Amino acid sequence: MKFFDKLSLRATGALAAASLASLLASTSAYAEDKVTAVHAFPGFLVYTQTFLAMVDDINARGKGIVQIEVKGGPEAIGMFQQPAAVRDGVVDMVHTPGSFYGKSVPEIDAMVASTVNPMEARANGGAALMDAAHQKRFNVRHLGWIDGGVQFHIYNSQKPKFGADGVLDLSGVKLRDNPIYHAFFMAMNATTAGMPATEVYAALEKGVVDAAAWTSIGLMDLKWDKFMKYRVDPQFYNTDIGVIFNKDSWNSLSSESQDLIQNVVIEWEEKSYNDRQADVVEEAAALKAGGMEFVDHSPEGGAKYLKMADDAAWGRMKGRLDALGDTTTYDALRKHYTP
After folding, report:
1. Rounded to an integer, what distance in angstroms lies between the CA atom of residue 319 and that of residue 308?
2. Which of 55, 126, 314, 338 sits a CA distance of 20 to 30 A from 253?
3. Which residues contact 211 (CB under 8 A, 6 or more apart)?
4. How many CB atoms lie within 10 A of CB 122?
5. What is the C-alpha separation between 270 and 289, in angstroms, rounded?
6. Given 3.40.190.170, 3.40.50.10800, 3.40.30.10, 2.40.40.20, which CATH number is that of 31-339?
7. Residue 47 near residue 241, CB atoms below 8 Å
């Protein structure tokens, strides 16, 4: 009897050891957090390349902790549908311009009209305010402002005209529109057609539009310079490209994963800012070498032009916040983003 008791005890012990090993293996398999992501722009654009390089950095440092799987760009989820997708948890993370969801988070216009760079906004508390607004209004965390410090120009296939007040005259110009500068274009009484960046080349080719605003870099990547031969100065606004993360998905991550992702994004705020400043200089030289003419406002006209842009962005934000019954955020954001 003692023999069988010992045999049973050994079997029980072996079974317990096997169960423990299985449990440990299972726990180990689930220890690494998994994150899904998409990006707004096509993969060949510098902004997307920044995001993909940042993801590679996170994945390299996050082995055994967290891994991000990029599902694609606008071919996976339409660029204007991506913000809602991350809000609703269809994907965990999105790299996108904030203006694509500005109606839901009016505060994003503070980044558009900002006079500080991403590092300054983080140091003075502006980034924390922006994150808080995203959590409150859109069920996402705003982790960082990537490729900041890049501004916009209007590019035209026709030689620009200026009004009696010295400001660019857009009468008769068919201008491609986008949420970030829509209010500004409306203030200038422009005739606009809204469309994704991926459709603009064909629209230029067919004459649907003959002008568009774009950043000071990336025009040649899109091949729009084939049609547009004039750049209007001065530049206005800032890119408002951010990394936003579904709040519920974020809360489900380990603290180690959260710290790693957030810290890398903050590092890339500065790295991407510095890299893009060099790109701005390089691309301006390349556009000139390719025959593009840079047409500037007079000093007085340029000042009026920039004030119209500034007033349009801040005015839009204030109007949206007022409609929400928010009477405090506007002043707080102006203090942090235009100190």
Report:
1. 16
2. 126
3. 154, 155, 156, 157, 158, 170, 173, 174, 175, 176, 228
4. 18
5. 29
6. 3.40.190.170
7. yes
Residue 163 is predicted with a pLDDT of 96
Give the predicted TM-score (pTM) of the model.
Answer: 0.88
Tell me the average confidence (pLDDT) per consecutive run of 10 residues in the chain, 339 residues long: 43 44 46 97 96 98 98 96 98 97 98 98 98 98 97 97 96 93 93 92 96 96 96 97 98 98 98 96 97 98 98 97 96 97
- Which of 202, 213, 143 lies closest to 178, judged by CA? 213
H or E, element range at 227? none
Q: What pLDDT does residue 3 have?
A: 37
DSSP-assigned letter for residue 67: E
Closest by CA position to 261, among listed 272, 270, 250, 252: 250
The reported pLDDT for the residue numbered 31 is 86
Residue tagged 């996976």 (tokens): 76
Compute how many other C-beta atoms are within 10 angstroms of the C-beta atom of residue 22: 10
Domain ranges for the chain, please list them.
1-27, 31-339
Dihedral in degrees, nearest 10, Cα atoms 96, 99, 105, 108:
90
